Amino acid sequence: STPAVQLSIGELPIVSLSGQASACEGESVVLTADATGGAGNIISYQWYLNDGELSNAQLSSYETSEAGQYT
Q1: CB within 10 Å: which end of the chain, N or C, has fewer?
Q2: 3-state secondary structure (DSSP) of residue 11
Q3: Contacts of 26 (CB under 8 A, 6+ apart)
Q4: Which long-range contacts (CB under 8 A, 24 or more apart) does 36-43 make?
Q5: Does residue 21 have a pLDDT over 90?
């Protein structure tokens, strides 16, 4: 027989994003994520541009000069 497994899912954190919404051509902006609450510690972040995962973008802030929708 297969042993029973108990799974507990903790409360998710609340994430707020901040940063300059626009910039002139050639300028960059810094986007920042602030996560509060939730169960456990935040150990990593992942930034996305237009629903695509950005490589080397795993910190709470991200600097960019590329236009698009960031999450």
Answers
A1: N
A2: coil
A3: 65
A4: 37/11, 37/13, 38/10, 38/11, 38/12, 38/13, 38/14, 39/10, 39/11, 40/10, 42/13
A5: no
